[in-house]
Design goal:
The structure is a homodimer.
Chain A: E1 8-9, E2 12-13, E3 24-26, E4 32-35, H1 42-58, E5 63-69, H2 76-81, E6 85-90, E7 93-99, E8 113-123, E9 128-133, E10 139-140, E11 143-145, H3 152-164, E12 168-183, E13 186-197, E14 211-216, H4 217-221, H5 224-228, H6 230-243, E15 251-256, E16 263-268, H7 270-273
Parallel strand pairs in A: 4-5, 8-13
Antiparallel strand pairs in A: 1-2, 3-4, 5-7, 6-7, 8-9, 8-11, 9-10, 9-14, 12-13, 15-16
């Protein structure tokens, strides 16, 4: 029997090292995705990987994604030595990638932005604004990070609920701000959302919050930080206009995306969208 | 000489394994950041890491960030076995993290969103819209990914330049769309930008583009895809309103951020900002 024959043992194909292709699924861009879910000997892994590459090359495959769960950390060093590069990581796995063709890589870049929300809750009965105290004696609007898979409007509602216990309804994104190198090399997008309260009893819940209260709009606006900081000043100005119904932000509308008809939310100037075209 | 004395050899302090703290800098949240820049023996690394932890624990340190460049891939497995978890990765390095206190981790989440732009270039002389052909016979607006550290408006200008060679000026974000699981678990933010051309000679540059041309607005809007896809329909409607000056998006304004006075850009309804408060 030559080295390249596959022996049959009791009717089961017994692959020899170097004759087995790693389990993979194809992606829609001519690449393959390998997820190593079971403990694997590094030597067996390397031999199988090399054999797999001979197959993938001959099939004209492009990008090879290699997902190594934390439990398969012993395969990280062999994978890098075989030419893989890091692509991204989450607490429980590391994703590596290898670009086969001679042509320039079209491997998409890693996620580049953190997204945060700040929630302005205006109580129209009392013309008051919701304010927060965090440690330093400064009243601030509730803010927080938007999780992966979380809608911006939902994050704003969640943050207000977490920090103060009140329920709100999303009205508009009043403005947003982009800054860079906010978190290592990552950029930051901060969405300032306007919410309407649907319950009014404040229950401070977040440990990071020292106190929470309804606060007259003019009091929160007259804090020294509002005058010092450009962004605070603009938010105050927008809120003043908003209370007089003289400012329109972007409200939300369910939509489907360009390419894959995925469901999402579009944020746009709905008031102007209702204009007749003259 | 006891095991714990540090011997001097030719005036150079010679640290013994288990008596040296890894080189680190402190972060502003009570944590430390270690970057392993030089080749290190894994056994020495583990011993030094353990000794470092005794120091950091006694100093009340919280998060320990461990930056392992690709060349130090041999330290990934030992670090994970010592209890580190992946935080994020870029092609050339892997960042791991360890949370020392008993209390809940306040380690910030990894970047969660990819950001993309779509550029609508309206040529007001001819009431025409800029359109693109990509393979499939569909005319599309130029789109592309916003790089880390790149401003949204700059990305829109760059994409139009790359795909068509024309120069543009940023006017407004007309709307934006958020979708989920667009790229593995990451979410996607797509900003639809309106640009004004400042040069008009089209030079197709991007290899992915089959053709580029100025296209009458109504022709691009009458493509079947515009009618089929919700997002295309909305963009078309906004552009129609825009040509009649009946829609206001968010324009840009340099600003400084809330907490660290970092320079950034705020996108807001500038037209309404110029309203007098009644």
């Amino acid at each position: 029997m030559s080295d390249h024959e596959t022996p049959m043992v009791n009717g089961v194909v017994e692959h020899k090292i170097g004759e087995e292709v790693l389990p993979f699924v194809e992606d829609e861009y001519g690449g393959v995705i390998v997820e190593m879910t079971t403990p694997t000997d590094p030597k067996f892994f390397v031999a199988t990987l090399r054999y797999s590459f001979t197959q993938w090359r001959s099939q004209g495959k492009k990008g090879v994604w290699l997902n190594l769960p934390l439990s398969q950390v012993n395969l990280v060093e062999p994978a890098v030595k075989e030419g893989f590069r890091y692509h991204h990581a989450e607490p429980t796995y590391l994703m590596l990638v290898y670009w086969i063709p001679e042509s320039e890589s079209t491997i998409p870049l890693n996620a580049s932005h953190r997204v945060r929300v700040g929630a302005v809750v205006l109580n129209h009965n009392k013309e008051e604004k919701y304010g927060m105290l965090r440690g330093s004696g400064v009243w601030k609007i509730p803010t927080g990070v938007v999780d992966e898979g979380e809608d911006i409007f939902a994050a704003a509602i969640r943050e207000v609920k977490e920090e103060t216990g009140i329920d709100t309804e999303f009205l508009e994104v009043l403005a947003f701000c982009q800054t860079h190198e906010s978190f290592f090399v990552k950029s930051d997008l901060f969405f300032i959302c306007l919410l309407r309260p649907t319950s009014f009893d404040i229950q401070k819940q977040d440990l990071e919050i020292e106190a929470a209260q309804w606060m007259p709009f003019e009091d929160s606006a007259s804090q020294p930080i509002t005058h010092k900081n450009e962004l605070f000043k603009v938010i105050h100005r927008i809120c003043s206009l908003k209370m007089e119904k003289n400012y329109t932000g972007f409200s939300k509308k369910p939509t489907t995306t360009f390419f894959d008809d995925k469901l999402g939310y579009l944020y746009l100037n709905k008031q102007d969208m209702n204009n007749p075209i003259t």
